[in-house]
UniProtKB/TrEMBL annotation:
One Pfam entry name: RVT_1
Ranges where the Reverse transcriptase domain occurs: 185-242
Organism name: Hemibagrus guttatus
Protein's name in the database: Reverse transcriptase domain-containing protein
SUPFAM superfamilies linked: DNA/RNA polymerases
Length: 252
């Protein structure tokens, strides 16, 4: 029998429990929608731009007889439309639900918060870079991990300076705000667009920054993530949950 942990503010009656559960599901849906709302807006704008380009090229094709570019844009439009459907969301705001969601959640201590907000140093960036495997496709700038590792002595301090300025001004370089989207085949009929998986290729400098920031978080996540979450938390193993399930089956 699984033990359900409750706090002082948790529901005490069956009706309260059902309402609490429904509120939670709505909030989860809202958080998912918030994550995708900007993607949906960008894809919609791209679709509108493609539609305009198709109309202009169709007029040109009628006079020249060359329809190759029109067909290429139509394929791009079909791909963008499929992505739009994938990321479509219905955004709703509800401060009340957010307040309910945040009740009872653990908080980071003042000391840990100060450490998290501390500046990145060159050694952290270098350590993050060294953990990244090679042989991966680069982002829009075409600079792979191997390039940064080879030229780190020349580029390291410059990258740190750029990131420090970016954090102060809350604005990353344009290349760090862009990704190259490519398609990887899945199983099934590859003539069906749903059997292709979109993958975003990010620039290496952005990934180095992200990894360094993730390392900042690594040392404190176990204090705010509930103990039942064993995957991707330092000093915990997903095998623990397998053992827990086995113990539950043995006891029940």
């Amino acid at each position: 029998m699984l033990q359900r942990r409750v706090s002082q503010d948790s529901p005490t009656t069956s009706r309260d429990l059902r309402q609490w559960w429904d509120h939670g599901k709505v909030l989860i849906q809202q958080l998912c929608h918030e994550y995708t709302v900007n993607i949906t807006r960008d894809i919609t704008k791209s679709l509108e731009d493609l539609e305009i380009a198709i109309v202009e090229l169709q007029a040109l094709a009628e006079s020249t007889g060359d329809r190759r570019h029109v067909e290429e844009l139509k394929v791009k439009k079909a791909l963008m439309a499929d992505l739009l459907d994938l990321y479509r969301s219905e955004h709703r705001d509800s401060k009340e639900l957010l307040d309910i969601f945040y009740q009872g959640l653990p908080k980071v201590s003042s000391e840990d918060n100060a450490a998290l907000e501390g500046p990145l140093v060159l050694e952290e960036l270098h350590a993050a870079l060294n953990t990244m495997p090679g042989g991966k496709a680069p982002g829009i700038d075409g600079l792979p991990v191997e390039f940064y590792k080879f030229f780190w002595k020349e580029l390291g301090e410059d990258l740190l300076e750029v990131l420090e300025k970016s954090f102060r001004e809350r604005c990353l370089p344009l290349s760090s705000l862009r990704a190259v989207i490519t398609l990887l085949p899945k199983k099934g009929d590859l003539q069906d667009i749903k059997n292709w998986r979109p993958v975003s290729l990010l620039c290496t400098d952005y990934k180095v920054m992200s990894k360094a920031l993730a390392n900042h978080l690594r040392d404190i996540v176990d204090s705010v993530i509930q103990t039942d979450q064993t995957y991707c938390v330092p000093n915990r193993s997903i095998v623990d949950n397998v053992s827990l399930i086995q113990d539950i089956l043995d006891i029940s």
